[in-house]
Backbone:
């Protein structure tokens, strides 16, 4: 994918979230089923955290902080997070809601950063990891986000940044959307992409790349990539030798396999 097209897709996605933040957030209030499985299978691999501090998490593409609500349910008052997203409205709404739920201060630092733009500008993995503004974390996650990153190379660089943002022995967990394989969502994605390309005057997109709409609005689209299993393999290889794969499983959606979860553990 050439740089001009990648940046056009990035802009469409940013405009999408700025436009639909309230309605999008309203549909993203509950934890994904895959998070519970992740917690059951991967959390024991973390090992004990330092006794004088809570669990440290980095959440890239945090949206409305619903993963932080999940953490609060699992380890009440025993976590702190560094939350990174490019959509100010989603983060602020999520922070206000979480503070109201907890009845006190928010144990999370909000970092407004367009990660996709940073990647397209050529930011390396180490610099991107530092830009999260967090100390070495026990857990770094990116849920519902990597599908917005154009190009396999940029997605691999983001994964390496997540690995570099955790301590030795820390975990990285990402969800990789596989909507093109879904019998209901796949055809809808094809139709929406055809309509969007015609409306916006865009060229054919690389394999796995789509433009998806939102509810009944015919004018707003976001870029999304649907991951083939071979691409999941490629991402796991991209983390070597700094990290190794410790878990991979399907979860979420009506089919129970709308997302593929990839879990890595940093070596050292």
Residues:
């Amino acid at each position: 994918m050439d740089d001009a097209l990648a940046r056009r897709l990035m802009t469409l996605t940013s405009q999408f979230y700025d436009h639909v933040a309230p309605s999008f957030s309203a549909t993203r209030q509950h934890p994904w089923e895959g998070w519970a499985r992740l917690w059951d299978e991967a959390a024991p691999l973390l090992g004990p955290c330092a006794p004088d501090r809570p669990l440290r998490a980095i959440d890239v593409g945090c949206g409305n902080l619903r993963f932080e609500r999940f953490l609060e349910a699992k380890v009440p008052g025993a976590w702190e997070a560094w939350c990174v997203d490019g959509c100010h409205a989603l983060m602020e709404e999520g922070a206000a809601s979480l503070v109201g739920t907890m009845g006190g201060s928010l144990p999370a630092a909000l970092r407004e950063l367009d990660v996709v733009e940073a990647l397209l500008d050529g930011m390396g993995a180490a610099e991107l990891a530092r830009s999260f503004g967090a100390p070495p974390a026990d857990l770094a996650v990116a849920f519902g986000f990597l599908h917005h990153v154009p190009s396999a190379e940029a997605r691999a660089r983001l994964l390496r940044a997540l690995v570099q943002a955790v301590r030795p022995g820390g975990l990285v967990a990402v969800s990789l959307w596989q909507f093109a394989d879904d019998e209901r969502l796949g055809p809808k994605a094809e139709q929406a992409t055809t309509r969007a390309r015609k409306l916006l005057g865009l060229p054919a997109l690389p394999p796995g790349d789509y433009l998806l709409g939102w509810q009944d609005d015919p004018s707003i689209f976001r870029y999304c990539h649907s991951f083939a299993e071979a691409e999941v393999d490629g991402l796991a290889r991209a983390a070597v030798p700094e990290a190794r794969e410790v878990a991979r499983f399907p979860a979420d959606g009506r089919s129970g396999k709308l997302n593929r979860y990839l879990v890595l553990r940093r070596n050292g």
